[in-house]
Structure formats: structure tokens, C-alpha cells
Write a structure and sequence with these properties.
The chain is of the alpha/beta class and 309 residues long. The chain has a domain at 9-141 and 177-204 and 267-280: NAD(P)-binding Rossmann-like Domain (Rossmann fold), CATH 3.40.50.720. It is 38% helix and 16% strand. It has helices at residues 18-29, 50-57, 78-96, 116-129, 149-160, 179-190, 211-222, 233-246, 254-261, 286-292; strands spanning 9-13, 33-37, 62-65, 101-106, 135-140, 143-144, 163-167, 173-174, 177-178, 199-203, 209-210, 227-231. The protein has a six-stranded parallel β-sheet, with helices on both faces. Strands 6-9 form a two-stranded parallel ribbon. Strands 7-12 form a two-stranded parallel ribbon. Strand 4, helix 4 (116-129) and strand 5 (135-140) form a beta-alpha-beta unit. Helix 1 crosses helix 6 and helix 2 (50-57) packs across helix 3 (78-96). The longest helix has 19 residues, at 78-96. The N and C termini lie far apart (40 Å). The relative contact order is 0.14.
Length: 309
């Protein structure tokens, strides 16, 4: 065990999502019992059965709350998932006697954020902090790794289009953070690292670079060299609306345009980094990028909402 002296029973929301899958695997490899909470397991936080959720959390020492969305579809709204879902999770955790909740939030989540995504992520943070249950809030930047949105859709776009539109007329910085580094901190929080108790922390990768350079590093790793052009934010917002309307998983969402337009290198409000031994160290290198890439290929019919997978 990395933290604590015995195996724990730990629930993970969004367990079938990108970060959720990684933390589930990490906890299981460390010998912990994992309770997976997701729509696929019948414990949907957007329309929960309170009794079912409470029963699922019985005997759990901790909850890792990774459930979240970056676009709204039908009843899967930001308010339903981020706010009401978090409140339902807190109430069920109290009833089940859960001893700790850690939540994966977004670096720039804040009450006056430019989108409902920013504002509802902040609301979820506030609910966790005010719950009375010991907590850890991770405000993470752009997370990368196998199965992510960044490598997956970025690489498919680079295989599909000879021209690539960079977000905004002015370069903004990013500090991409590896999913394994994020999962390591979440594991420490869930398994009793007292340094993380009742703390809100900024989680960023070690390398800061302009967003365009991050795109070029991925392009170089797959051997693609498109023509790069800068597009104003309104053009990207129009593209995002189309992508949200026609794609199963959008190439880019409206929330993501706003996220990239303001840069992703500083927490808002400000938050400290984790303890030194937990600070992310994985570089945004060609080797790391290649390890996280999906199978090579362009976008196709399978990516459209009306086509069967």
C-alpha cells in the first residue's frame, strides 16, 4: 500500500470515464476494493436512486468523485451532473458514513467563470468543501494520457484535415498534466494522506508551453505537418456548436473553446500545488505523447451521432 496500512473500500464516480478508469486500475493494483459508480453500473448521479446510491456506498472508506461532462446532452446537463449529482453524492456519503471525498475539478473553475461548465464545477467544489465530510479538491489543468480527449481527438483531427485552426488570435499557455500523475494524487487522498486532508490544490504538469506548441508536439509524434492558421474565438465557437450537434464526442466543445482561450496555467482562485513528492513530474515529451496516442486514423462515420458504432 502506498498510503495507509490496510486495504480500503473506495467508491469512484465516473469510473468508466477517462480519469475514472485510470484511478480504478491504480486502486485495484494497490489491493483496494473499488466500487464503480457510473451510468453503466446503474448509479447515475444525474438522476440517482438515493437508496441505490446509499447502498452502493455502504462500507466505503472514501469516495473519488470524477464524474463530469464538458457538453450538455438532453438530461445530462452541467447542473444535473456537477451540482445536483454532487449534492446527491454528498447526502448518500453522509448516510453511509463515508470518511473522505476527493473531487476532480478544473483549474479555472470559479463562480464568475465564462461558461456554465466553469460555474458548476466551482459549485461542486463549494458543496464538497461545505459538506462537513473531510475532503480534497484537485483543480487540474489539461489532462493527457491514453483514452483522453486531447490525444484522441487532436490526433484524429491531424490525420483528417490538412489545415489546423489554432484557438484565438493570441497565443495562450498550457501546462498539460499526465493522467497517471493525477491518479497518483487521487489515490493518496483516498487512502489517507493527511497532508491532503481538507485541502484545495492546483495540479499542473511540469512543462509550460504555448497551446500551439502542444499541438505541434502531437503532430510531430504522429508525423503529420498541417498548415496552422489562427482563427478568432467566434469562429471556434461556431465550429464547436457544429461539433456538439453532429459528433458523438465533439472535436471541440463550447466550454473547451473558452477554456483554451484564457490559458490553462494558473488556478482561479489561486491554490497551492500538492506536496513535493506528489507534484506531477511526467514531461510532455514525444515518448509520453506516443504512449498515449490512440490507433492511427482519421475521423469517420462512426464519429457522427446518427451513425451506428
Amino acid at each position: 500500500m502506498n498510503h495507509g496500512e490496510s486495504a480500503k473500500r473506495i467508491a469512484v464516480t465516473g469510473a468508466t470515464g477517462f480519469v475514472g478508469r485510470h484511478i480504478v486500475r491504480r486502486l485495484q493494483l494497490a489491493g483496494h476494493e473499488v466500487v464503480s459508480l457510473s451510468r453503466r453500473t446503474g448509479t447515475d448521479l444525474s438522476s440517482p436512486d438515493p437508496a441505490a446510491l446509499r447502498d452502493a456506498l455502504k462500507g466505503c472508506d472514501a469516495v473519488v468523485h470524477c464524474a463530469g461532462i464538458n457538453r450538455e446532452i438532453g438530461g445530462q446537463t452541467y447542473d444535473a451532473i456537477h451540482v445536483r449529482g454532487t449534492q446527491a453524492l454528498i447526502e448518500a456519503s453522509r448516510a453511509a458514513g463515508v470518511g473522505h471525498i476527493s473531487v476532480l475539478s478544473f483549474l479555472r473553475a470559479r463562480p464568475d467563470g465564462p461558461t456554465a461548465y466553469h460555474r458548476t464545477k466551482w459549485a461542486a467544489e463549494a458543496l464538497i468543501r461545505e459538506s462537513g465530510i473531510p475532503y480534497t479538491v484537485l483543480k487540474a489543468g489539461v489532462i493527457h494520457g491514453r483514452g483522453d480527449h486531447m490525444f484522441d481527438h487532436l490526433s484524429h483531427a491531424l490525420y483528417t484535415f490538412p489545415v489546423f485552426g489554432l484557438v484565438g488570435m493570441r497565443e495562450q499557455p498550457v501546462r498539460p498534466v499526465a493522467v497517471d500523475d493525477v491518479a497518483r494524487i487521487l489515490e493518496a487522498a483516498a487512502t489517507g494522506d493527511e497532508r491532503l486532508r481538507n485541502q484545495t490544490m492546483a495540479v499542473l504538469g511540469p512543462d509550460e508551453m504555448p497551446l500551439g506548441d502542444a499541438v505541434r508536439r502531437v503532430a510531430d509524434a504522429i508525423g503529420r505537418h498541417p498548415v496552422y492558421v489562427r482563427l478568432p474565438i467566434p469562429a471556434h465557437l461556431a465550429l464547436a456548436r457544429v461539433c456538439e450537434a453532429v459528433m458523438r464526442v465533439p472535436l471541440i466543445s463550447i466550454a473547451q473553446v473558452h477554456i483554451l482561450a484564457e490559458g490553462v496555467v494558473e488556478a482561479s482562485p489561486p491554490a497551492p500545488e500538492p506536496p513535493t513528492d506528489l507534484v506531477p513530474q511526467t514531461p510532455f515529451s514525444a515518448k509520453v505523447i506516443r504512449a498515449g496516442l490512440p490507433e492511427a486514423g482519421a475521423f469517420g462515420c462512426r464519429d457522427l451521432r446518427w451513425c451506428r458504432a
